[in-house]
Design the sequence.
């Protein structure tokens, strides 16, 4: 279980509060207006923004003692953070060994991860020779290989067209099922939340609200969500 316990996060003048638990393995969408604090919430879980107050607990352990690299977390950003000078296989291998000391077994795992995301032939290419959708798949393969129990996605597919984005969301769903990871995905598209997430966190007015079943939230939107949706 991931628990925000009376958490207060601050960036400059901006303050965000969160106080709720979410079960391991849940698929959460994080939605809300621009500047409402969605990325702030993810950065805190990843360890790049220590809470001003309260604790973030994973399986009962306060994450504050762990630096970002030691947290049970993989984070994917929109730019996919692929290194242009490394091959696809090496970029994925970074998920296993930051110094790229890869064993035969590691290379087998990389090949399996590439298969899983539908890119079996691309191991020796460099990111510059891939389409946007293929880059997104490589980044996902790296996350798959790290197999950390929390996967944070900060609008990772927003640059992709609608069909490709849906394909990637389905792939993330599959990956999350394979690894049993808790997924928190920031998105500006309510359709993403409805397609992907069993629960949704609305971030608005300085509060990351308690996760609500996605279908209930959209069937009966609270005022802040209605304003955001423009309905
Ligand atoms: N380094 C910083 N210093 C000061 N204020 C910051 C900093 N980073 C973010 N903020 C402020 O914190 C607030 C929340 O930002 P955040 O990026 O979390 O919002 P968001 O909901 O992810 O927005 P968007 O949907 O536009 O990406 C914003 O008002 C932003 O201006």
Sequence:
């Amino acid at each position: 279980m991931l628990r925000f316990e009376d958490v207060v996060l601050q960036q400059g003048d901006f303050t965000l509060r969160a106080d709720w638990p979410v079960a391991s393995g849940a698929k959460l969408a994080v939605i809300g207006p621009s500047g409402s604090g969605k990325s702030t919430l993810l950065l805190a879980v990843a360890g790049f923004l220590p809470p001003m107050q309260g604790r973030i607990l994973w399986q009962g352990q306060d994450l504050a003692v762990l630096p970002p690299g030691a947290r049970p977390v993989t984070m994917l950003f929109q730019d996919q953070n692929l290194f242009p000078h490394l091959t696809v296989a090496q970029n994925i291998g970074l998920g296993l060994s930051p110094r790229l000391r890869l064993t035969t077994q590691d290379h087998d795992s990389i090949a399996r991860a590439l298969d899983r995301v539908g890119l079996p032939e691309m191991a020796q290419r460099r990111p510059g020779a891939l389409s946007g959708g293929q880059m997104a798949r490589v980044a996902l393969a790296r996350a798959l290989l790290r197999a950390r129990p929390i996967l944070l996605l900060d609008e990772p597919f927003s640059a992709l067209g609608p069909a490709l984005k849906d394909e990637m969301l389905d792939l993330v769903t599959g990956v999350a099922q394979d690894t049993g990871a808790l997924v928190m995905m920031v998105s500006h598209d309510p359709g993403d939340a409805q397609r992907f997430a069993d629960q949704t966190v609305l971030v608005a007015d300085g509060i990351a609200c308690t996760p609500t079943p996605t279908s209930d939230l959209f069937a009966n939107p609270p005022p802040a969500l209605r304003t955001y949706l423009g309905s």
In short: Residues 11-12, 14, 32, 34-40 surround adenosine-5'-triphosphate (CB under 6 Å).
